[in-house]
Specification:
The chain is mainly alpha-helical. It folds into 2 domains: 1-46; 48-109, no CATH class. The chain has 4 helices and no strands. The chain has helices at residues 3-22, 27-45, 48-57, 62-108. The longest helix has 47 residues, at 62-108. It is elongated and about 75 Å long. The model has no long low-confidence stretch (mean pLDDT 90).
């Protein structure tokens, strides 16, 4: 094992632990975080495995496959965060409207 592999594995172990702590109330999210970090560790230990999987899928190199998967995952994460932000904005707007109506009714009385 090279030194960069050791560093990367340590980083992904820490990421798995932090992901498990961050998603403590959602078991599915915790499992997904741990599984993704486990897959990353396996690919770090066996880098030729990504090339073998890429060739099975019709992609030339394992690096290209990892890049494509990372792009799809990144776009998906951005869209999820955008949707969540929009939902929070709607909830805040509803709360502010309710507070404004309540305050207006109290001022009239």
């Amino acid at each position: 094992m090279t030194s960069i592999q050791g560093i990367l594995i340590a980083c992904f172990v820490v990421a798995a632990i932090l992901g498990s702590i961050a998603f403590r109330t959602r078991l599915a999210c915790r499992l997904l975080a741990v599984l993704l970090c486990l897959a990353a560790v396996i690919f770090i230990l066996f880098p030729d495995l990504t090339t073998a999987i890429a060739r099975l899928l019709g992609v030339g190199r394992g690096t290209d496959l990892v890049l494509y998967v990372a792009l799809v995952a990144g776009i998906h994460a951005i869209l999820l965060l955008y949707r969540r932000t929009r939902d929070l904005e709607r909830k805040i707007t509803g709360q502010i409207r309710a507070m404004a109506l309540r305050d207006a009714q109290h001022k009239q009385q």
